[in-house]
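To illustrate the input format used throughout this study, we show a single complete record. The first block contains the structure-token representation of the backbone; no residue identities are included at this stage. The design step must infer an amino acid for every position from geometry alone.
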């Protein structure tokens, strides 16, 4: 999935990511589980001069400790029991490209020392091998933990921490970037629909539920919710009853500054409740507009600019599509 950046925090992160992508320095991406750390890593790779070369991701938490070393560095035939053939490791597979070490804090201390040597020497020696292989690989790493605290606790090597933490980036939880919720929801719906299949729209009530939920599981939870909604939806619109959330405990309470933001001149008397309702309505309208824009642009890309195919995919008339494209042009969007 493409990196979605509509909220101010995400736009700032995308700007930093593009800047660091032009370099070859190591990047450490921190953030809660499900916030899109790997998506950001892929965005950095696609924005870099290495984009035409491999992007190899290794989930350090998902591979057993006794297999991770051979997976990363490779091995020669006969290096250990069961090694019936030589195997190229992930570092060599990523040659001239990018290697992502996902959840690097799950790597055992003994292997951390070997990883540090590879990063320092920029060469790797397969298990059971005698010759070192020179590497030209850009390394990215992610973690959902406080890596500085892991170092203090003795669970992560301090020298490796400094080797990885050359350029730190942080992905914010979804509850802190509410403007990303609807564009992400529509992007996820688009990715789950088969080619040529109509992409359902979100009703205002359904959108309101998505915007006011706290998303403890972040984008991964949003993806699950949209998959369920897609299955339950029988028509062209996802309604509130199709959106199944984890319960009221997850509902998001806007900060006071957002709840009482003035949207009318001070001379017009309004209750705090009315101001809050007007502010929420304005935020919802803006987020829906952004989601509609992204949905139209995605459809144009998927159908190679074929207006008739785009209108069919979106379930609208060609005349309505022309009107919406004209409005996008007026707002400065090139279509």
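Output of the design step:
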């Amino acid at each position: 999935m493409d990196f979605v950046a509509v909220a101010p925090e995400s736009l700032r992160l995308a700007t930093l990511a593009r800047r660091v992508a032009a370099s070859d320095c190591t990047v450490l991406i921190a953030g809660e589980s499900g916030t899109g750390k790997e998506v950001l890593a892929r965005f950095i790779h696609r924005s870099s001069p290495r984009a035409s070369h491999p992007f190899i991701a290794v989930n350090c938490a998902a591979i057993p400790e006794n297999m991770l070393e051979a997976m990363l560095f490779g091995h020669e035939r006969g290096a250990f029991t069961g090694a019936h053939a030589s195997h190229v490791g992930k570092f060599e597979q990523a040659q001239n490209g990018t290697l992502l070490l996902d959840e690097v804090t799950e790597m055992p201390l003994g292997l951390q020392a070997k990883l540090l040597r590879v990063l320092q020497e920029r060469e790797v020696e397969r298990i059971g091998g005698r010759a070192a292989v020179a590497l030209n690989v850009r390394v990215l790493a992610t973690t959902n933990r406080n890596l500085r605290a892991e170092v203090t606790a003795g669970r992560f090597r301090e020298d490796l921490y400094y080797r990885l933490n050359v350029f730190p980036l942080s992905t914010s939880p979804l509850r802190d970037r509410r403007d990303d919720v609807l564009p992400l929801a529509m992007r996820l719906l688009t990715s789950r629909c088969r080619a040529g299949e109509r992409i359902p729209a979100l009703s205002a009530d359904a959108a309101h539920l998505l915007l006011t939920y706290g998303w403890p599981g972040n984008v991964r939870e949003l993806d699950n919710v949209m998959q369920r909604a897609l299955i339950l939806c029988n028509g062209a619109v996802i309604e509130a009853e199709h959106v199944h959330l984890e319960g009221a405990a997850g509902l998001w309470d806007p900060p006071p500054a957002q709840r009482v933001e003035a949207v009318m001149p001070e001379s017009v008397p309004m209750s705090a409740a009315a101001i809050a309702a007007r502010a929420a309505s304005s935020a919802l309208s803006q987020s829906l507009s952004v989601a509609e824009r992204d949905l139209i642009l995605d459809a144009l890309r998927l159908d190679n600019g074929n207006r008739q195919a785009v209108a069919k995919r979106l379930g609208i008339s060609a005349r309505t599509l022309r009107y919406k494209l004209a409005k996008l042009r007026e707002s400065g969007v090139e279509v």
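Structural context for interpreting the output: Residues 248-281 have pLDDT under 50 and may be disordered. Residues 8-172 form a domain with the Rossmann fold fold (CATH 3.40.50.300).
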